[in-house]
Design brief:
two-stranded antiparallel ribbon
């Protein structure tokens, strides 16, 4: 028996939404817009000349595919991390999970 026959239309719509989000989480070229309140999924094209720069189609924020921070032209992700820590935008504790990001 299909799930849509066992639940309300509203529940089925929610199920479809969660299934779609789950499929995006499995997509290696998907990143979520880092702007608070936006968090729109953005699919990157690794062959694009602008890669790794992404632009959110909803809020227009430019951000980095590799480190998911606002776009940092002329800086590697590692340099940007150090800069963000130095100005207090991110804490040193936040940097630890980002260590896996290539330093270019």
């Amino acid at each position: 028996m299909q799930i849509e026959q066992q639940v309300s239309e509203q529940q089925y719509d929610r199920f479809q939404q969660f299934r779609f989000i789950a499929s995006l989480r499995d997509e290696p070229n998907c990143r979520w817009c880092p702007r608070n309140g936006c968090e729109t999924p953005c699919i990157a094209d690794p062959t694009a000349p602008t890669h790794p720069e992404l632009q959110c189609p909803v809020c227009d924020l430019h951000f980095c595919f590799d480190c998911n921070q606002e776009w940092h032209p002329n800086m590697t992700c590692a340099e940007n991390r150090k800069f963000l820590v130095s100005i207090g935008k991110i804490s040193k504790e936040y940097v630890a999970p980002l260590q896996a990001i290539p330093s270019e």
